[in-house]
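Pasting as-is:
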Amino acid sequence: MSRDLTRIERHVTISNEAVAAFLRFWLTSTPSLLDSALSAAQTKGRELYVGTPWPILLMYTPYMYTLYT
């Protein structure tokens, strides 16, 4: 049982690191919005995500934070 838990922990750690690497790459390669498009994106984002838990998660990324502030 101890070996199984160690293996699961290893797999979870590897998965977390892979997701983190993908997100870092995605956030650094996604261009910023122009000021003219920012207010429209903020409005659309508020319409789409009102009442869902996703804005809470997305607000912690630097790019998405600009859409909600």
